[in-house]
Design a protein that fits this description.
Radius of gyration: 30 Å
Helix content: 55-70%
Length: about 800
């Protein structure tokens, strides 16, 4: 009952003890309390009750009862970090038990060995237990054993075998009332989905498991660990770090399992490293290594050492000693059959390259490169990264480019499985190294055109494919409606200077629900195989007498690719870090100019604009000609006030996320019908004065204002329009860019609403504050309100196209 209705079982056990039970019944009651405390409470209390249960079982003269309690005690001791004592208790339980009971004890020892990372031994124990449990027609324990065997298979990378066991276990669980075990099985299937590369399915299953645990009122530390893994793979490392740290605080507060704390510390270390916080990663990983070592968990300790080394390398520490340590870790992981072994070999190869040890580097990279043809997408990415570095060691530019192409193709296919725009954008970070290697090889080759192709290969890729349209999910639509109502009420309360904490809490809750459901979306649009063609770009630029300036960043320096007049030329400009600093100064200066009496600062701002031009355009500024210019900056430079640069001030200027995006927009034909839509939102200081003027200019235009300017009506009219002009208050959310919004009569129109369009307007003008602001994520991606209008789905399976004003 303790795994069907835990809190009820605890109350029943305490009731048994209050009734002066026999030693046999008291042993069972103390064991139930011990299991409850072991899994969801204080380990000291758990060990007290389990030892009492063991002593009472001995007094009851029941060998099988004593064996069963010894098994539960052994698992608790292992979780408390007392590994030798725990394994000894389990061994004693196997000796005391017989038949069916002995099989249950074998299952628990298999579980303990899984916790310790002794996967082969765990498989042996569970394989011995399953036939006996099946013969005894013990449905619950057979299902547990199958679930455990599947989980061990996942840890060893055998996902197909795991799926077969999970399916068999799920069929058995459906015949029982073991709600906690069922939640655990859902959670484990989420882990298997993640290991096979299906992140949306993993997130959905883990959320489902969390809902099941919440109904039972039990903590979910193992779920926290697994969700951290998935969040990190999805590019959400800061969220993973926050979740791990919060779980550690809860675990410490209840005096919970030492083993789980070590695993949470390891998850936190990985997340901190991926989030760019090397010092936190080193601190967390060092604590994890010491805990795992004390618990005699070699498999786990070796993984923690790998993360510790990765964090030290991120902190710019390289040495012969670190190289030797990494090689030793790679060898141990390989001996365990751990899926992380290629990652360790790749790291060893990188360190050897930094030290100039070419022979050692090639050897380790060769080992890591073996993973490029097998396993989940991210494992194959590791293999292709190793292959690219290996080709660079031997001086093969062609080999570098081929490995980079193959690796990015793998990541492209993986991104297409992700339905959420946010996940697609963040996933590109995993290809940043391959893209950088290809760009450097192109630069070394001396071909500006090749450098342009590779700069485009991994720039704003989230915009090159349409977002997955959210399904007609009644709960998602209900959440969006509720969010809009709460946000509108909160905004009204702020205007009236009334308190809004309760409304803000509910708004944040609804945002979490909407985002969670969106992250579950699986990609349903395959890539169209389109590759950027510089010849087509140059032809279009020639037709329009336009110059396109693409900025690429290699080794921290800006490379300017000037496209026009039938050729691509390269110029070297300044350092990116200096340009970013100067851009911040310029923006601050422009903000000050908006205040009365600040005219005297205008020469200072103009001088800053000249310095910014030197850093960003360098010698290319003298070759821009007299016609229009399109600037394609990296994501981190999109906020630069480009019109302040002297060479761009007196000309037609456009800014685009990518050259291929600009080209697609220019080649797009307007939709038939030519419907114009004019929207005037509420509360504008000007009253949206341009909308009535435009209504007179565009005869037959659909004008939405007052009660008509509600979200549902606006979306209906925007879908497939030739022109949309929206005058409304805009809000950019740097903390959550996909909740950036335009204010309509009934509340905010957010990015998630725009993603429900079949096709965005051919041309859209956003006369709204803050709508041109973006968040830079992934390798070179943008998230924000204007970005989503750049993506659209053409009904009927036609090739996607879009046209937008930027």
């Amino acid at each position: 009952m303790v795994f069907a209705a835990p809190n009820d079982a605890l109350a029943r056990a305490e009731g048994v003890l209050d009734a002066d039970p026999s030693p046999l019944h008291a042993s069972v009651a103390h064991q139930v309390i011990g299991i409850w405390q072991r899994d969801w409470g204080d380990m000291r209390i758990a060990l007290h009750h389990l030892r009492r249960a063991r002593d009472l079982a001995a007094r009851a003269d029941s060998a099988d009862r004593e064996a069963d309690v010894l098994a539960a005690l052994g698992v608790a001791l292992v979780h408390a970090g007392r590994t030798q004592q725990g394994l000894a208790a389990l061994e004693r339980g196997i000796e005391r038990g017989s038949g069916h009971t002995r099989a249950r004890v074998l299952f628990r020892r298999a579980y303990a060995r899984w916790v310790l990372g002794q996967h082969r031994e765990a498989l042996e124990d569970v394989r011995r237990a399953i036939p006996v449990l099946r013969q005894a027609d013990d449905v619950i324990w057979t299902a547990r054993a199958l679930t455990l065997r599947a989980t061990v298979h996942v840890a060893m990378g055998a996902v197909d075998r795991a799926e077969a066991d999970f399916t068999a276990a799920e069929a058995l669980w459906d015949t029982t009332g073991q709600e906690l075990d069922k939640a655990d099985a859902v959670e484990s299937r989420g882990l298997a989905a993640f290991r096979s590369g299906d992140i949306p399915k993993a997130l959905r299953l883990l959320d489902e498991a969390e809902e099941r645990y919440a109904k039972l009122g039990t903590p979910t530390f193992m779920l926290n660990i697994r969700r951290c893994e998935v969040l990190m793979a999805a590019g959400l490392a800061p969220e993973a770090l926050a979740e791990a740290d919060a779980a550690i605080a809860v675990l410490d507060g209840i005096g919970g399992q030492s083993t789980r704390k070590a695993e949470l510390l390891l998850a936190a270390a990985r997340a901190a490293r991926l989030a760019g916080d090397a010092h936190t990663a080193i601190a967390r990983a060092d604590m994890a290594v010491r805990l795992f070592a004390g618990q005699r968990r070699s498999w786990w300790e070796t993984h923690a050492r790998l993360v510790l080394i990765e964090a030290r390398v991120t902190a710019k520490r390289s040495s012969g000693r670190l190289m030797a340590d990494t090689a030793a870790v790679a060898e141990r992981l390989a001996s365990f059959g751990a899926p992380a072994a290629p990652e360790a070999s790749l790291l060893a190869g990188r360190i050897a390259l930094n030290l100039g040890w070419s022979t050692e580097a090639e050897r380790h990279l060769g080992v890591a490169a073996r993973s490029r043809h097998n396993g989940p997408p991210l494992a194959r990415m590791t293999g292709w990264a190793a292959q690219a570095l290996r080709a660079r060691v031997v001086g093969s530019s062609r080999g570098v480019l081929e490995a980079c192409r193959r690796g990015l193709d793998v990541l492209d296919a993986h991104r297409m499985t992700l339905g959420a725009s946010e996940l697609r954008a963040r996933a590109t970070a995993q290809g940043a190294e391959l893209a950088a290697l290809a760009q450097q090889a192109s630069l070394d080759s001396g071909s500006p055109r090749r450098l342009l192709v590779w700069s485009e290969r991994w720039r704003a890729t989230a915009l090159s494919t349409p977002p997955t349209r959210p399904p007609a999910d009644p709960e998602l639509l209900s959440d969006l409606t509720a969010f809009r109502e709460i946000a509108a009420r909160a905004e009204e309360a702020r205007r009236d200077a009334r308190p809004v904490p309760v409304l803000e809490r509910e708004q944040r809750r609804l945002e979490r629900e909407i985002r969670s459901r969106t992250l579950h979306l699986r990609g349903d649009t395959p890539g169209d195989g389109h590759r950027f063609d510089p010849g087509r770009l140059l032809d279009r630029l020639g037709e329009e007498a336009t110059r396109l300036v693409e900025l690429a960043v290699l080794d921290g320096r800006v490379q300017v690719l000037l496209c026009g007049q039938g050729r691509v030329r390269r110029f070297e400009a300044g350092l990116l870090a200096e340009a970013e600093t100067e851009a911040e100064h310029v923006q601050a200066g422009l903000r000050r100019l908006a205040h009365p009496g600040a005219e005297a600062r205008l020469p200072v701002v103009e001088a800053a604009g000249r310095r910014l031009e030197e850093l960003l355009l360098g010698p290319a500024a003298a070759h821009l000609g007299d016609g229009p210019v399109v600037v394609v900056p990296p994501a981190r430079l999109h906020r630069v006030p480009w019109a302040l640069l002297p060479s761009l001030r007196e000309r037609v200027l456009s800014v685009s996320p990518s050259a291929s995006g600009w080209l697609r927009a220019r080649e797009t034909e307007p939709p038939p019908g030519g419907r114009q839509v004019l929207v005037r939102g509420p509360g504008l200081a000007t009253g949206g004065a341009e909308v009535p003027h435009l209504a007179g200019r565009y005869s037959g235009a659909v004008v939405l204002e007052h009660a008509d300017a509600c979200v549902a009506r606006v979306l209906e009219e925007l879908d497939g329009a030739a022109l949309a002009h929206i005058a409304a208050h805009g809000t950019f959310r740097p903390d959550s860019p996909l909740f950036s919004s335009l204010r309509m009569t009934d509340g905010p129109l957010i990015v998630h609403d725009f993603e429900r369009l079949d096709r965005s307007p051919y041309r859209i003008i956003l006369s709204c504050s803050d709508t041109a602001r973006f968040a830079s994520v992934g390798a070179d991606e943008l998230l924000g309100l204007a970005v989503v209008t750049f993506s659209a789905v053409v009904p009927g399976g036609c090739r996607w196209r879009t046209g937008c004003c930027w």
